[in-house]
Amino acid sequence: MTDFSKFKIECETLKRNQAKKIPKEIPILIFGAGGFGRNLAKVLIDLNFDVIGFVETNPSAKSFNDLPIWKIDNFNQDHSSVQLIVGIYNRDVPFDLLKSIAVSSGFGSVLMPWDVYNEIGGQLGWKYWLSSQELLLNAINNIERVFNLLSDDESKETLLNICRFRLGLKDDYASFKHEDEQYFNKLTLDRFSSFDECSYIDCGAYNGDTFIEASKKLPITKAYLFEPDHSNYLELISAAKLSDIDPICLPLAVSDNYQILTFSGGGEGGSISVDGTDSIAAVALDQLLPNSNIDFIKFDVEGAEISALTGARELINRSRPTIVLSLYHRPSDIWEIPSLISTYCINYKFYLRQHFYNSFDSVLYAIPN
Question: Does domain 20-128 have CATH number 3.40.50.20?
Answer without folding.
Answer: yes
